[in-house]
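Study this chain:
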Amino acid sequence: MSLSSAYIGAGNQTSFFNRKASVPFKQLKKIYGEELALISSEQSKLGLNRKTLSETDRVLLKEKIRILIKNQRRNYIINLLVTICILAIFLFTILLIGFKI
């Protein structure tokens, strides 16, 4: 297929669609090399690596997560009810005024 047979876009530059895909985060170490090394060494010094949890810690963590989820659900339901009430008041006011939708 010749290049003139179809519109290839990108300013008709073949290098645009012939190039190889770049590796994601390839230059991350080059750009943030010293900071990345410092962060990794600080994490290992502070012992922030993965640790095993005891059974009591696991139960406490699960309970904290349950409480967080319960609070999020409660907030969601309260927000939903407030929104529905405001919408109902707004629609009722429109009906009282006699504005036709």
